[in-house]
Amino acid sequence: MNLILFLIIGGVAGWLAGLIMKGRGFGVLANIGIGIVGSFIGGFLFRLLGLMAQGAVGELVTATVGAVLLLAIVSKIKKG
């Protein structure tokens, strides 16, 4: 995948994850970083489940799922 497209999808996924996790976001730039890391996590989890993303929309869904999971984990650690 093109690096620029990867960064854009990760950024959008982080932004969406911040909206989904209302109140658990860490600001725009941090959420973009979380989206990029979340795309790796989502891709790993989807492969474990035998799922495969198709196209940009599939990649966005995968990255968003990973980013939401990462935000949930980070917020739990931050509270503890």
UniProtKB/TrEMBL annotation:
Q: Per the UniProt record, which residue ranges are transmembrane?
A: 28-49, 56-74
Cited InterPro entries? Transgly_assoc
Reading the lineage from the top rank, the first entry is Bacteria
UniProt keyword terms in alphabetical order: Cell membrane, Membrane, Transmembrane, Transmembrane helix
Its annotated compartments are: Cell membrane
**Per UniProt, what is the membrane topology?**
Multi-pass membrane protein
Q: Name the protein family.
A: Belongs to the UPF0410 family.
Supply the name of the protein: GlsB/YeaQ/YmgE family stress response membrane protein
Q: Origin organism of this chain? A: Marinobacter albus
